[in-house]
Amino acid sequence: MFDSVDPLLAEHRELTERLADPAVHQDPALARRLGRRYAELGAVVAAHRDWATARTDLADARELAQEPGEDAAVFAAELPGLQERHDTAAERLRRVLIPRDPDDGRDVIIEVKAGEGGAEAALFAADLVRMYLRFAESRSWSTQVLSSTDSELGGYKDVQVAVRGSSSDPAEGVFAALKFEGGVHRVQRVPATESQGRIHTSAAGVLVFPEADAPEEIQIDPNEVKVDVFRSSGPGGQSVNTTDSAVRLTHVPTGIVVSMQNEKSQIQNREAAMRVLRSRLLDLQRREREEAESAARHSQVRTLDRSERVRTYNFGENRIVDHRSGYKAYNLDAVLDGALDPVIESLQAMDEAERLAAVGQQSRAEQSEPTERCGARR
């Protein structure tokens, strides 16, 4: 039972030795990747240790319960509790052995775009950004607004925010928590501009990209990037509308376009644009890998059509509903203030259940293969 854990235990021992080598830490990106894997395998090691201890205790108690003498009854009475402890440890080990998303431990770049709904959609996009910033703050994550385009009445037409975590454990990674936020978020409320109190429905789109650990991780051929410079648009001020500081990068092979204009320096805008471009290319590699492996995944909605929603925010009822996990609560005000944990946990539980089901199907298929081969020979 659990034969697949042996190579993981050996890998954990190897990583322990590598991370003790000072030379590894001279490459921060490498040290970070190894640290994430070490933390992930640490959960496997701990679960295996608990299971092995519970198995030994149960086996010893069974043996002693069969021995003659007065103590046999005592050990027999302990068997149900030891069996329950063993089964719980076995289930925990089974869960941690399910392969995690390899990008769970990465930092992310979140893009929020106003969709259908005009000015109200832009205001809602700003509400979502504030929600993510507050959530990041509650987890001691750092945030940085890379780029934003304001709407005329307030809010954002689009905004890009980098979120950086503080833990090497993939289970506590930024992408592990925020990857399910991708999709169309729909809002139902009475806009501030509505004079007759009618409820409007509008939408904002959210895209979540895992960020590369280092520039070297995603190699970009400069000859495949078209660079355009132009004057920043905005309310005015020093270096705004007066110099060609804004930068637009077009990755020719993929058609990905990234524009940056928040910084006064063309060099800073170019660096920020390259950072976003690398994250998008990393996300493209991720999706291609998942499709090639036929892995079950939650696709992020790439349109801003209100009908393609993943979540609805109803202000009149103070209600939030996630249409994937079925989560529903009447604490929208708290969620928009950053209390996203219950919503995210419902999506993580759904994802874990699907991965468990997939592993079970694969196991049953492998067990049935010998029988099918024997039947074919007959």
TrEMBL record:
Residues 231-247 form the Prokaryotic-type class I peptide chain release factors domain. Residues 366-378 have a biased composition (Basic and acidic residues). Methylated by PrmC. Methylation increases the termination efficiency of RF1. GO terms for molecular function: translation release factor activity, codon specific. Pfam families: PCRF, RF-1. The keyword Nucleotidyltransferase does not apply. Its main location: cytoplasm. One of its GO terms (cellular component) is cytoplasm. This is Peptide chain release factor 1.
